Amino acid sequence: xxxxxxxxxxxxxxxxxxxxxxxxxxxxxxxxxxxxxxxxxxxxxxxxxxxxxxxxxxxxxxxxxxxxxxxxxxxxxxxxxxxxxxxxxxxxxxxxxxxxxxxxxxxxxxxxxxxxxxxxxxxxxxxxxxxxxxxxxxxxxxxxxxxxxxxxxxxxxxxxxxxxxxxxxxxxxxxxxxxxxxxxxxxxxxxxxxxxxxxxxxxxxxxxxxxxxxxxxxxxxxxxxxxxxxxxxxxxxxxxxxxxxxxxxxxxxxxxxxxxxxxxxxxxxxxxxxxxxxxxxxx
Length: 283
Prior knowledge:
CATH architecture of the largest domain: Beta Barrel
Number of domains: 2
Distance between the termini: 45 Å
Number of helices: 5
Helix content: 10-25%
């Protein structure tokens, strides 16, 4: 799904991205696979009018998606790639060899007319086979896919992407150049990494001020007090935290039963947003 960045003509459009529709091959859905979406017109489940001045709205149609993928051992061809207003993913219309058509969520890289036949030489008979083969490999691994395109069999090499990095947040959680840096772990259940120049510029912060929360372990102290991935930690107990080493040093001095207060710039906050305090008693 391609994206484009808007020109920063106002504070609201700075760093904003929107979808483009270059990958869409048709504007009209397959009519047998759509059904109307009914609205309540401001009435509750008893038919009583509870919200005034609520009209019926624009006509909306729901695309019926085949989530179960229970049609097995029958080859299918990608007929169209379509926009679905009811979800963030694209959808693909498959035409099976027996003539039946079904919608599926569109896998990235699949083109109209493609028929995937193998993964690393292993035959793929169903969509479940393809998903299990891809999911079993680590991000960054290269995989050879055998497919039929324009009636010709061919092999193509693809790289397995990390979904979290593919849809990295506007804070720029992925560093420029794609280099892997292991985040610093802590007994707080929080992993941090240094603030990059790009992220500091977006948040209107000096390059050497704060560390970014890379991960928060569920049910940990950091999770309990509300820290989340992408937050920028500026201070811990009034001690500046500007690097991973600062974070490790300050956390090492914390003891069980001690009150811990973080000065944090929340994830997604704009340059004009302020900071907040998060705190609790260390177990």
